[in-house]
């Protein structure tokens, strides 16, 4: 019995700290707060299009950086809502600048939790403006208990999974692709 307890304790001491972190499941994968945005996103089966776009846009290094960043991360289904052929066209090397503009439009400098966003929305009278890494703006508001993000064209995207904390920021999973003017 004693040997069994010692063996169990030895196994527990070998268990990495990462296994004890509070995680959120996204796309069938645990998102670890000790990993950065890219390290986590590559494991989400719901974000394969986004990951491919980030790679094609040569933004992996940026989103692996210190940040902090708030990322509104569209799912594969969100990208599927775009007109046929849009994603395939955007990931072509000659369209890298446009792709980077769209991707950085989903990134807000700083770490804004859902609670931070809701407080800003309430303090600003029902909606608040967020300045993106692309230098454009998004508008955040509430629809019931959900945060809704509106792009410059009036398109909206709802946060479906909030507060996926990363070592260099936070991801909020959204159901639509946000497009700059």
Automatic annotation (TrEMBL):
GO terms for cellular component: extracellular space. Residues 34-178 form the FAS1 domain. Keywords: Signal. Residues 1-19 form the signal peptide. InterPro entries: Adhesion/Biosynth-related, FAS1_dom_sf, FAS1_domain. It comes from the Bacteria. It holds the Pfam family Fasciclin. PANTHER family: FI19380P1, PERIOSTIN-RELATED. This is Putative surface protein with fasciclin (FAS1) repeats.
